Amino acid sequence: MPPGLHRLLTTFFDPGLIVRSMPDLLSVGLPNTLTLSVFAGAIGIALGLGVAAGLMSGPAAVRLPCRAYVDVLRGLPHILTVYLVGQGLPLAGLGLFGDNTYGYAALAIGLIESAYFAEIFRAGFQGVDRGQVEAARSTGLTKWQTLRHIVVPQGVRRVLPPLTGQLILVVKATSLVYLLGLTASQREMFAIAQDGAINHANLTPLTAAGLIYLALTIPTTYAVNAWDRRLGGARPARAPASE
C-alpha cells in the first residue's frame, strides 16, 4: 500500500483505536446522548405545540410574536443559540438549572427544535380537511371541542412521520453541547470522541462516534420513510378534477 494511502486510512480508520474507543462511547457517550435527546425533544415538542397554537391563532398580537420566535430560532446558527442559552443564562444570573450543564444544554437544543416542531404541527393541523371542521362546528361542537375531537387526532397522524424525522435531528444536535464544558461523566459521544482524537492525535475516535450515530439514524430514517409511505398509501386518493 502506498505510504500516503496508508497514512490517510490510519488517520481516519485505525481498527485498533476504534476498538479502544468503543467502550467509553457505548457506556458513557451513548446513554448521555440518548438522555439529552429525550429531554431536549420533550422540551421542543411541548414548546412547539404552544407556538403552533399561537401561529394558528386569530389575534395578530399572539400570531406575530410566535412567527418571530420561529423565524429567529430557525434563522440563527445552532451553535450560536447553544452558546447564548448555555453560557449566557448563567452569566446573566438566571441560574435555572444551577450547575447542571445538562439542563442548559437540553433547553438550548429544545428551543432550537421547538421552532421546527411548531411548523410541523402547524402544517399538520392546518392540513385537516376544512369541510370536516365546518361539519363539526355545524353539529354544535365548540371551537375547542372541534380541535380536540377532529383536528388534533387527524393532525397527529399527519405529523408523526416528519416529527419522528425531526427527532433524529435532535440526536445529531446533541453533539453541540460539548461547547458548554461537560464533566467526564456528562460527556456525550462527540465530546468523548473529540477528547480521544486530541489524545491520540488521530481522528479515528471521531469515525467511531460517527459509526454509532449512523447506526442510530440510518435505520430510523428508513423506518420513518417506510411509515410515511404506508400512511400515504392509506390516505384516500383525491378524485381527478373534472374537465
- The helix fraction, in percent, is over 70%
Question: What order do the SSEs take from the amino end to the carboxyl end, as H and E?
Answer: HHHHHHHHHH
Radius of gyration: 22 Å
Structural shape: elongated
Q: Please give the largest β-sheet.
A: none
Name the CATH homologous superfamily: MetI-like
Structural class category: mainly alpha
Kindly provide the name of the CATH class: Mainly Alpha
Helical segment count: 10
Average pLDDT taken over every residue: 84
The count of DSSP E runs of length 2 or more, i.e. the number of strands, is 0
Number of domains: 1
Beta-strand percentage range: under 5%
Observed structural traits:
243 residues; MetI-like fold; mainly alpha; 10 helices; disordered C terminus
Structure write-up:
This protein is 78% helix and 0% strand. It has a single domain, classed as Orthogonal Bundle (MetI-like fold). The longest helix has 41 residues. It has 243 residues and is mostly helical. Helix 4 crosses helix 6 and helix 9 runs antiparallel to helix 10.
Outline of the structure:
This protein is mainly α and 243 residues long.
How are the elements arranged and paired?
Elements: H1 3-12, H2 15-55, H3 60-75, H4 78-86, H5 88-91, H6 101-126, H7 130-138, H8 143-173, H9 189-200, H10 204-234
Helix pairs in contact: 2-3, 2-6, 2-8, 2-9, 2-10, 3-6, 4-6, 6-8, 7-8, 8-10, 9-10
